[in-house]
Amino acid sequence: VAQAFPELNLDWWLWGTGAMKAETQNPSTAATRANDLRSSALSLQSEPRGKTSKAQAAQAQKWAEVFDRALLERLDLMHAVVEHQDRVIELLTHEIKNP
Description:
This protein is mostly helical. It has helices spanning 10-24, 27-46, 53-97. It is elongated and about 70 Å long.
C-alpha cells in the first residue's frame, strides 16, 4: 500500500497523530501507540513483496490492519479535540451569561 500510494505517507500520519494526541492525552501512552503503529509500518515496508498471490494477500491484510489502527487513532484524536472544543464553548458561554 505504501509503495502504491506514497502520498498517503503513513509515517507522517502516525507521527502527526502521536504528536497531537500527546497534547490532548497522556503523552507517554499516545507516543507508545503511535510508535507501535510506526514500527508495524516500517516492519511491513522492509518485508520483500510476496511472490505468490497468497503471500501478497497476507501482506495486504497486514497493511489494512495498520491503516485501520491508524484510522482509529485519528478518530480517537478527533473525539478528544471535539470534547475539548465543547468544554471551551461551555466555559465561554458561561462567561458571557455570567460576566
